[in-house]
Amino acid sequence: MSAIDTGPNGASAQNLLLLLLKARTFIALIVVFVFFAAAAPNFLTTANMIIMAKHVALNAFLAIGMTFVIITGGIDLSVGSIVGLCGMVAGYLLLNGVDLGYAWTIQFNTFEIGLITILVGVLVGVVNGVLITRLNVAPFIATLGTLYVARGLALLSSSGSTFPNLSGNAEWGSDTFRWIGAGSILGIPVSIWMLILVACGAAYVARNTPLGRHIYAVGGNERGASLSGVKVKRVKMYVYMFSGFCAALVGLIIASQLQAAHPATGETFELNAIAAAVLGGTSMSGGRGRIFGTIVGAFVIGILSDGLVMMGVSTFWQTVIKGLVIIAAVVVDQAQSRFEARVVLRQQAAMR
């Protein structure tokens, strides 16, 4: 064993490199922020910061749900379609209610519309969970199937048309629907407050509850977790339900912001969610990931997207750049895993 491997200088260099690898998302955030602040006109204006924060929130919701799924060793490709489906559900309930026949129609207030919409998202998560845990369908295939099913149902709900003018009706108590996406509290958009609540709740579950420990255990070693008494199938069901919940929130927020619902809403959103989670340090092999890192990753993706738009970069090149970001994030994640393994081996050899 060479001196550079075991000596204090070598150990310090290893620790510094490992620290830089772990802090790569935060470093990337600083780099893209400084770059666009200097290169993009009006990037630092208050109005742009608010708009960008709203965009980041949408991606962050999906990325938080995706983080838990990926930590268990799975993937959820259906979140974008759930966004579109849930937006259409909210739009349909706002405009039409539920027709019971015989001239009877049930109309819903804003809270009820939000609750039903969220239940729809959770239900799709249940379907994903059942396919994966009970029928042993691979997560990639199961969620790819529900991606198409949810998108098809969204299209069928309006024959492919948009539900416009979702301003609600004061008589039914649905006129506050717009507040979800366009309202603010203490000058901060409601969607940001919702993100703070969801992120804090998710972080608490991940760090301080048995469920959080079980999620990491399933991703780290599913067989070992099962032998230790962890109810693996139940844990996987919970994470896919939570992912559906997060996607439903995004569908609600977008329909409220636009005051319209379109069945194509949410297309490719799953890619941004995966990119944010992986960029934030979530390992695609499972067992590792942090909610804070995912939030930072969502900011990187959001700032990158909005900054490129402000600089007039072609949407085609934007897609290429996002793809390169995902590839780079996975490569660096694999490099970090290999480096950590080598450091552990060297430390063990030095102790002998």
TrEMBL record:
Major place of residence: membrane
Keywords, sorted A to Z: Cell inner membrane, Cell membrane, Membrane, Transmembrane, Transmembrane helix, Transport
Pfam families: BPD_transp_2
Annotated localization: Cell membrane
Transmembrane domains' residue ranges: 26-44, 56-75, 81-104, 111-131, 177-206, 237-255, 291-309
Membrane topology: Multi-pass membrane protein
CDD domains: TM_PBP1_transp_AraH_like
Keyword Cell inner membrane listed: yes
Molecular-function GO terms, alphabetical: transmembrane transporter activity
Highest taxon listed in the record's lineage: Bacteria
Keyword Phosphoprotein part of the UniProt annotation: no
GO CC term, one of those recorded: plasma membrane
Name of protein: Erythritol ABC transporter membrane protein
Source organism: Poseidonocella pacifica
